[in-house]
Amino acid sequence: MLSRRGVVIMPDEFGPYWFKLLEGTDLNLLGIHPGASEGRTVYEVLESFLSVENRREIERLENRGITVEMEMHALSWLLPREAFAVHPEWFRMNEKGERVSDYNLCVSNPEALEVISENAAKLAKLYRPRSNRYYFWLDDVAESQCHCPECQRYSAADAALLVYNAILRGLRMENPDAMQCFLAYHDTNSVPKIVKPDKGIFLEFAPMIRDFDKGLADPTSEKNRKEIAHLPELLSLFGTENAQALDYWLDNSLFSGWKKPPKPFMLQAETLAKDAAYYDSLGISSVTCFACYLGEDYYNLYGRLPEISEYARILSGKAGS
């Protein structure tokens, strides 16, 4: 049974419009997906969102049974790019053999991992969710590994797990009960072979490169077959108890090419129902979905609400009732 059922929206969509959409449904999870905006770091964006007023609204939602969690690409703040001038060895080596500060890091450098842990502790001091579940992700780009001789033995998934273990160590400096996700996404959607997850790391499976007109388990979809190819083994490694699927059925930012104005949206209910049953069959009890670009501006543009109630009914097994 899917015990955690939710949506993920952007910080500027958090407010009465979405609160009303959630009312009358049995969705019980609201994710917030902040990103660094021009001139502000991830920490500053998170700090700004966690205002006194928003903390009060979060508490109100959680007292009503709706868990609120933050999900964000945070690596470029956890290991600040400006440190490259003094510590180029912390950063990745590209395929030309050059140290570059564009994305991620050199995971073989223990000092870099220690900095990540220390900064993760600062984030945990600012933000402590009731669920103790944290989603601080690597940079949002594939094929960005370090190619130094020491790192070449690590797959993208192994390298990512080294970082997520380091984040967890930092979080637990401030929150001993903290859990940190391993995001299986793009080139990290494979099974780590060398690195083992520390206790408190859980799987978050995000099948972005997929067909939305077919269920994930549909054997006629080559994209979907690739997306789920490693999922059973990932669940075997990380366990199902805290595993979460982060899907894209409602992600109108994706369907709009991440450009506004948003395009008209229609939920593919048949695909959703098949996928919800598939996740449930694997023992994944936490299922959520990006639902960006369906906020108040969408309603003002098209004069209709997104199909959140139908989405909720399908996830809870009540479709058609």
Write the layout of secondary structure elements.
Elements lengths: L3 E6 L6 H7 L6 E4 L9 H8 L2 H12 L3 E7 L1 H4 L31 H17 L6 E5 L18 H19 L4 E6 L16 E5 L16 H7 L2 H8 L5 E4 L4 H4 L13 H13 L4 E4 L6 H7 L5 H8 L6
Parallel strand pairs: 1-2, 1-8, 2-3, 3-4, 4-5, 5-6, 6-7, 7-8
Helix pairs in contact: 5-6, 10-12
Question: Strand order, biggest sheet?
Answer: 1-2-3-4-5-6-7-8
| Series of secondary-structure elements, N-terminal to C-terminal | EHEHHEHHEHEEHHEHHEHH
How many angstroms does the end-to-end distance come to?
A: 17 Å
Report helical residue fraction. 25-40%
Tell me, rounded to a whole number, the average pLDDT: 96
Q: Per the principal axes of the C-alpha atoms, what is the gross shape?
A: globular
Q: Uncertain runs with pLDDT below 50, 5 residues or more? A: none
Describe the overall structure:
With 321 residues, the protein is of the alpha/beta class. Helix content is 36%, strand content 13%. It is built from 12 helices and 8 strands. The protein has helices at 16-22, 42-49, 52-63, 75-78, 110-126, 156-174, 222-228, 231-238, 252-255, 269-281, 296-302, 308-315; strands at 4-9, 29-32, 67-73, 133-137, 179-184, 201-205, 244-247, 286-289. It has an 8-stranded parallel barrel. Helix 5 (110-126) packs across helix 6 (156-174) and helix 10 (269-281) packs parallel to helix 12 (308-315). The radius of gyration is 19 Å and the shape is globular. The mean pLDDT is 96.
